[in-house]
TrEMBL record:
SMART domains: Aspzincin_M35. InterPro entries: Lys_MEP, MetalloPept_cat_dom_sf. Signal peptide: none annotated. Gene3D superfamilies: Collagenase (Catalytic Domain). Residues 34-193 form the Lysine-specific metallo-endopeptidase domain. GO terms for molecular function: metalloendopeptidase activity. This is Lysine-specific metallo-endopeptidase domain-containing protein.
């Protein structure tokens, strides 16, 4: 991950775990984007329907655009990852800070420019829970870490919100409020995680 930078990681092990999760995401996100693009008014994959609801072209466009931007940001953009041990963000998995104080500046083009100029105005903090979380579909840390990365990167590149937390709540949102689901970070996290575990199982 040559364009990213890392700060305040007190142990090599913690940084290696974070970089491993990034490499996993860089490996599997292109396949996840491909799966999302395969959806249409004629057919919707199970994962898509579970987390984004019935097919609608405008919503589908938002989903594909967001996932493509996540893929780009993970593999190419300049993000500074900061490990925090005390204070705000220490007792969570991760959190994303908006550069320049405005989410509307989050575009792949601007991220590429940031990486090129080594500005690294895009910051994600890493908390204690990233290394112990099991709030994933299959209750494993690796899946939870993949989920966390996709969740936080969706904030970074697509101005997603956090109207709900949790797998069950995300699915309910897709059924009852699909317009909100396609703008919810949890829905992206769990959608990506579901496909990640399926692709790993299939090899």
């Amino acid at each position: 991950m040559p364009n990213h930078s890392f700060k305040n990681f007190a142990s090599v092990s913690e940084r290696v775990q974070w970089e491993s999760a990034l490499l996993d995401a860089a490996t599997y996100m292109p396949r996840i984007v491909k799966d999302a693009k395969a959806n249409s008014s004629d057919i919707a994959t199970r994962a898509y329907a579970l987390y984004f609801g019935a097919f609608d072209k405008a919503r589908w466009t938002r989903v594909v655009t967001t996932l493509s931007a996540i893929d780009f940001a993970i593999s190419s953009a300049g993000v500074t990852f900061v490990r925090v041990y005390t204070g705000k963000g220490a007792q969570c998995c991760a959190a994303t800070n908006a550069p320049y104080g405005r989410w509307k500046d989050q575009t792949p083009g601007m991220m590429a420019d940031s990486a090129h100029k080594r500005q690294h105005g895009y910051v994600m903090t890493v908390g204690d829970d990233f290394y112990t979380a099991d709030n994933s579909i299959d209750r494993t840390i690796k899946s939870a870490q993949f989920n966390t990365l996709c969740h936080e990167f969706s904030h970074l590149v697509s101005n997603t919100d956090d109207p709900v937390y949790g797998n069950i709540q995300s699915r309910a949102l897709a059924i009852g409020k699909p317009d909100t689901a396609v703008a919810c970070a949890e829905n992206y996290g769990f959608y990506c995680e579901m496909l990640y575990t399926e692709f790993k199982r299939l090899g």
